[in-house]
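WP5 quarterly update. Target: Xylulose kinase. Source organism: Pleomassaria siparia CBS 279.74. Length: 592 aa.
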Amino acid sequence: MANQYLGFDLSTQQLKGIIVESDLKLLHEAKVDFDADFAKYGIEKGVLTNPGEGEVFAPVAMWLEAIDLVLHRLKEQGADFSKIRGISGAGMQHGTVFWSQDAEALLGGLDGGKSLLEQLAGGAKGERKGAFSHPFSPNWQDASTQKQCDKFDVALGNPESLAETTGSKAHHRFSGPQILRFHQKYPEAYKATSRISLVSSFLASIFLGKVAPIDIGDVCGANLWDIKKGQWQEDLLGLAAGDEGVEDLKSKLGDVPQDGGLGFGTISSYFVKRYNFPSETQIIAFTGDNPSTILALPLRSSDAIVSLGTSTTFLMSTPQYKPDPAYHFFNHPTTPGLYMFMLCYKNGGLAREHIRDAINKQSSSTDPKSWASFNEAATTTPVLGQADSKTDPARLGLFFPRPEIVPNVKAGTWRYLYSEKKLTPVQADDSKSWPVLGDARAILESQFLSLRLRSQNLVEKQGNLPAQPRRIYLVGGGAVNPAIADLAGQVLGGADGVYKLDIGGNACALGAAYKAAWGTGRRDKETFEDFLEERWNEEGFVKRICDGYRKGVWERYGDALQGFEELEKTVVKESGEGTIGAESKAGGKVDG
Ligand SMILES: Nc1ncnc2c1ncn2[C@@H]1O[C@H](COP(=O)(O)OP(=O)(O)O)[C@@H](O)[C@H]1O
Ligand SMILES: O=C(CO)[C@@H](O)[C@H](O)COP(=O)(O)O
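Structure tokens (predicted):
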């Protein structure tokens, strides 16, 4: 009987589960879509918001329901859980889950005849004890922690030293500033918290039947972990812990094992009874969604992944540790000595949808969610919106329907004409200088120029071609869109082309399933890279979608980078405080 492995991805809008065989071929996949399946929680795009305070959060009870539902859906598709040998998973990064004093007892005593929701969520009126000291998990889109970030940024001297130590300067969504705010806003709930999990270790805990350790890759998204020393940074813990003390917070967070392939133990009897998993199924460390995504592909030097989900993230695996306040470094989720380089934008998929919807409205498209008009506009508009590159100004824009991380500005839309090194703003109603259709290409150019600007020092020369990515791999919901792929290649290059995964499934959940297979079955000292290489089937697993580097076009985007950088500086300056790539109290001039 062939062994099978299960991987999960608990992301902003969905919970996905997939099963692979030992040869890593995909067997089954199922998903729960939070908005479609759980409208009763009042969520939109997977989250609840409190705009007055910049809060974005998700109900933990909804995730409990989603776990039972996704397993049910996998079973409906014919999945046979009795073949599963190992489980791992990924959670959207930075979110925290606060466990109550009863959590361990409730997790350890689950009855396979009842749902997770019934047994762990607690009664709405407190009539039943629950496993959580707070019903919500702050989401990565949260922007409520500027005051706390200001404290973190100076805790080790300045943002540069915080980035040097923890891999990132302070960010609104990072767990350290979030824990500090939680502590200040809900002191009683903080006291009543026995353990704090990240979204990834929360999901692992459910499957393990006890609170699981935080993962060595995902822990770097907290501004609390000293990457070089491989331990909690006590000054930062002290800041987040306040008068409750460092030791108390340390015990809430728990120890972090250095081995990303570690088996935490066998599966909770709940899943054995309810779903027929073998009782010896191993639970392998769950990591963040981005660290998990880089495990879905055998990345080589200068390869880049662009993840087009709710967020846009740009990921590379590198032996170089070159932290800077403008971006993030994390421990690699499986391999000591390697790091994950990351850029993360809040305005990814939803910002593109915004423009798609405006274009569809104007063209009275029959299907308001169709990408056809957006794609046509993006691919028929000339490079940088210049019909004649010698006489026409370049059209450069920033499109942020939500407050952005890179650069740190409040929500807004900015459109500028750029010529002879000068930027001239375009008014919102000036459709002559900037037609609505021009936004389709402009948003894609803008998103990819931002990635190119910040990653140019990490890529190497490719043969006779200038320094650029070797391959661009597109993953996430937007990866199916050919116009987005085309623009990614035009702006970013990619000597070997633009690729996407061709095995169905979702890269992040696949990475988790691969990690489950490696962690469960690895031979002595077998690295994840060797394990993947041995099973990798280039023809069967990835597909080349289009050219990357195009001579002449790539160079024109290179020339536009200076204008794009100026545009960002102008917007950040207009918006108040803050530096490029950093958090600020900025208030943006909203043109659109
Ligand atoms: N054909 C398409 N073209 C462009 N974007 C798409 C397409 N299909 C889905 N998407 C985008 O994918 C996003 C969801 O991606 P996904 O990776 O599943 O999200 P997450 O993991 O963040 O929940 C949606 O916000 C949507 O904008
Ligand atoms: O905050 C980050 C990374 O720092 C985000 O990438 C989240 O991890 C959520 O990702 P998606 O839901 O878009 O997959």
